[in-house]
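OP here, attaching both records as promised.
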Amino acid sequence: GVLDNVYLGWLPCAAILFLLFIGNLGYGTVVWVVIAEILPKKVRSVGNSIIIFIAYLLGFISTKTFVDLSELLGKSATFWLYSTVCMLGSLYTVFCVPETKGKTLQEIEQCFQKPQPQSKQTSKDEQK
């Protein structure tokens, strides 16, 4: 084929360096900023601790299972599996995580508060 004589051994190394570069520019660090903005002040420290623990645990699990999954499913299927999980996470982020740009912490907290049910007295007053 066309690529038979082309040496592509440099491509995986370049892709990893590109991923690290992009991750450190913003994509990898924005997550932590958004978490700090979204969590209410009273649970922020505990919530951040739990989220960081889960993030590192999932990173460990994905790293630890990669070789076994590659042997079981093949490398192509393993990458498709991981990319599907990433795509589902991206869709969740797009559709379920609110935009925080230009909002105060109080406005962001209000996005996550449950609407308060009206008391019976208030609804009786409204009927008059």
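Record two, same layout:
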Amino acid sequence: KQWYQRRVRGIKEKKKHAQELMLQLIAYRTLIQRNRELEERTGPLPENAAIKVPFIILSTGPSTQIGLEVADDKTEYEFTFNELFEIHNEIAILKKMGFCYNLDTGVYGSE
């Protein structure tokens, strides 16, 4: 019976992982579509108009002091914070921007 429960648990984990990968694919495709449509309407995009991946966003309080050191070859960045901070990757941000059509929330609209 334990082997059956392990198999069921493994299948559930794989299903959850596959669903997350599908949401990531939807988010990336939506981003690509958004960038293409914007480029079709306005012509070649300025460097700051297209959302490029991968990226992270760091958020913290307004009184937090942030230090940044960049390697000479710009391949490494080191941040220091004197207070707590949160890291958000591109998938989390794209989801918040609606690039997954709210499929991650279970709330579906008529859009």
